[in-house]
């Protein structure tokens, strides 16, 4: 059995930063993730996607952020169980927990921190006939390596942050790039939307608003996509790739059976230390909800810091924690 102070469920960016924050308080972390590598969505779905809202980094690639978080965590010697889903938790008589994974691995911890992002997820797909026929053969729902689109004809579909960010990035990569969106306005960041509109005005991309994907065709691999434009005209566009970016459909999975308070598919926490309704179980990042919640990585980092202090007080209720600046405490390994 693995023994640790905090069992962190989820090895995405927020879970990785929790190692550092807990480490400053001399708490050791063991991380569990169903994915075979650390990084969560950033590593699995868009490792080469630039991120713009990390303090101190005007722009950083998703995988580079994960790599840096791992370097930051390294002095605190975290341990990992990867490729296994956290299935069950059992509270012990002394208030500690045993977490059991899908492969039977058991982790004994003093507290649990759930940093599972969106939980188990799958991409939302457009309702188009024969879509599955071309999956992996020109149709993909995530971009891991943008270089595969270099000098290719690419159609992106969607109106959120991911669609906007990839449109901006691929404008200088693809031979021909089109963005299809069913509405006249975007759901993503206004600055990104303005950049996309500017690219369209400059003729660098094709922008089809109030338009919908209707058909896909090809001989073995994707060759054509039919689009119904704002004037109800059916456009037949040659393409090498179609990338629908309609977001992910989250599923909490086994978490639903752990007795945690759930609201709109997220775990309810307080804003003092992000503890759930079960003492000793905390939740940080996109998996939680509270008044004013923003699903941003930087907000998850803030939650990780407060969670670590809450975990310390839960483990050592009689001790007084004298926090100093990290530049005073220093980063010391175990």
Describe this structure in words.
α1 (13-24) packs parallel to α3 (62-73) and α4 (161-170) packs across α5. The chain folds into 2 domains: 2-121 and 248-329, FAD/NAD(P)-binding domain; 125-244, FAD/NAD(P)-binding domain, CATH 3.50.50. α4 (161-170) links the parallel β10 (153-157) and β11. It has helices at residues 13-24, 40-44, 62-73, 161-170, 190-201, 297-315, 326-329; strands at 2-9, 29-33, 50-51, 60-61, 79-82, 86-91, 97-101, 106-114, 120-123, 153-157, 176-180, 206-208, 212-218, 222-228, 234-238, 241-244, 248-251, 262-263, 266-268, 281-283, 288-289. The strands form 6 sheets. Strands 1, 2, 5, 6, 7, 8 and 20 form a 7-stranded mixed sheet that branches. Helix content is 22%, strand content 28%. The relative contact order is 0.17. It has 334 residues and is of the alpha/beta class.
């Amino acid at each position: 059995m693995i023994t640790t102070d905090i069992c962190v469920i989820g090895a995405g960016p927020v879970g990785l930063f929790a190692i550092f924050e807990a480490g400053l308080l001399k708490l050791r972390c063991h991380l569990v993730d169903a994915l075979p590598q650390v990084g969560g969505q950033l590593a699995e779905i868009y490792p080469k996607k630039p991120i713009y809202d990390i303090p101190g980094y005007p722009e950083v690639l998703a995988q580079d952020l994960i790599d840096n978080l791992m370097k930051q965590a390294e002095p605190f010697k975290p341990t990992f169980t990867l490729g296994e889903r956290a299935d069950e938790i059992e509270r012990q008589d002394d208030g500690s927990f045993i977490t059991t994974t899908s492969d039977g691995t058991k982790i004994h911890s003093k507290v649990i921190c759930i940093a599972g992002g969106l939980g188990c997820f799958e991409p939302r797909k457009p309702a188009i006939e024969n879509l599955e026929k071309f999956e992996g053969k020109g149709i993909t729902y995530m971009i891991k390596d943008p270089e595969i689109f270099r000098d290719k004809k690419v159609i992106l579909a969607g109106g959120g942050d991911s669609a906007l960010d990839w449109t901006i990035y691929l404008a200088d990569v693809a031979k021909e790039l089109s963005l299809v969106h069913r509405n006249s306005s975007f759901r993503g960041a206004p600055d990104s939307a303005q950049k996309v509109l500017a690219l369209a005005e400059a003729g660098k991309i094709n922008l089809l608003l109030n338009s919908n994907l209707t058909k896909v065709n090809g001989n073995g691999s994707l060759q054509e996509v039919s689009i119904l434009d704002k004037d109800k005209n059916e456009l037949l566009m040659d393409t090498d790739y179609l990338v629908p970016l309609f977001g992910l459909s989250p599923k909490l999975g086994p978490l639903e059976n752990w007795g945690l308070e759930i609201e709109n598919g997220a775990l309810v926490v307080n804003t003092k230390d992000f503890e759930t309704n079960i003492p000793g179980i905390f939740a940080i990042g996109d998996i939680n909800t509270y008044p004013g919640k923003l699903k941003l990585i930087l907000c998850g980092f803030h939650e990780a810091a407060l969670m670590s202090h809450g975990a310390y007080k839960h483990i050592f209720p009689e001790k007084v924690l004298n926090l100093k600046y990290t530049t005073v405490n220093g980063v010391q390994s175990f």
